[in-house]
Amino acid sequence: MPNRVHNVGYGDRTPFLNAAASAKLRAEIDRQLDQQVVEWYANVPEAAHLEGRNVDSEYYKRNLIETAWRIRMLRVSEAKALVEIAKRSPQAAQVWANYEQEEMLHDELFIADLEKVGVSREQFLATEPYLSTKLLTGYFSYLLDHEGPLGVVAYSYLVEYVNVKLEPRKLEALKGSVGESNIGGQINHSHTDINDDHPGEVWAAVRHLLRDQDDVAAFKRYLREHQTILVQYFQELHLDTIAKAEQPV
Amino acid sequence: MTFKKLTVLPTATEILLPAGSPLTEVEYETPQRLIPFGCRSGSCGACVIEVLEGFGSLGEPDDDELDFLEDLGRTGGNHRLACQCRLRGDATVRVADDI
Predict the structure, then answer these.
(1) Chain B window 39-78: which residues touch A at a Cβ cutoff of 8 Å?
(2) Which among A13, A15, A19 has the least Cβ separation from residue B17?
(3) pTM of this structure
(4) Can you give the pLDDT at residue B99?
(5) ipTM summary value
(6) What three-state secondary structure class fits B98?
């Protein structure tokens, strides 16, 4: 007779996807993300702004501020996700814990870059995060309370995949526009994502969380929904900086 | 997708995995517990294997792994912690406890 203990991740340990099926699905997901990137550049105002030669100072600074806030707030949600992941898959939880350990203090890298361009830690702390940044945190809470941890992990896969693919190009451009000595924190952040294969790490967690085709469909949907919220953030950033500066006095 | 073959002795079980897969995948390919994985983070030593063929196919061990193998008395140069390996080419291994 079974005991009353639940949510400890035991039972059938065989993943829904074996190694080959996991690699095949990942390739399919990556194709979806490639398409999302195309849509991103087509639809987000000034999507390639930081890849250009002339970078708006306010846009650049505010993006760093929001990035640091996003890391600070999401690490709380992502720590809560670890609890939910451990209930379902200790294998995924081990991977997720390691990933979080590597990412946990990366807000400091962005704060260091802010100081290089004249924004003090005090100024950063005094800046209220955008509503879109708060809403992303709220979406994470909704997911954990009502749908489970897969959606939270999906966000990290989206971000890590896109970072590894696009960040080197952006950083190369920023070396010219902002100065290499001013973007050391962002370069270090990117080193971690690439050298530690963060997309691969996050995928290893995803693979153990997927239990059936419904989860696969949900995962694809999460990737689109996260992008929708990130678009809202970049619209808010554009309106508050570049568009505001262009308005007639 | 390219597959590589891992042969695990003494049962001579052959497993095909996508190139670059961690050896921890062995656990999910067969109900047999061919390699006794423990922590899966290179710190417990449960999964020491002797690599009989294809040592270079499992990636380069880092300094932490080499130090730990030395602590475990596996200094012959052909041992690895299976949880730290990725299958990049064909290889044949044997669980150290069975040596």
Answers:
(1) 40-41
(2) A19
(3) 0.89
(4) 47
(5) 0.77
(6) helix
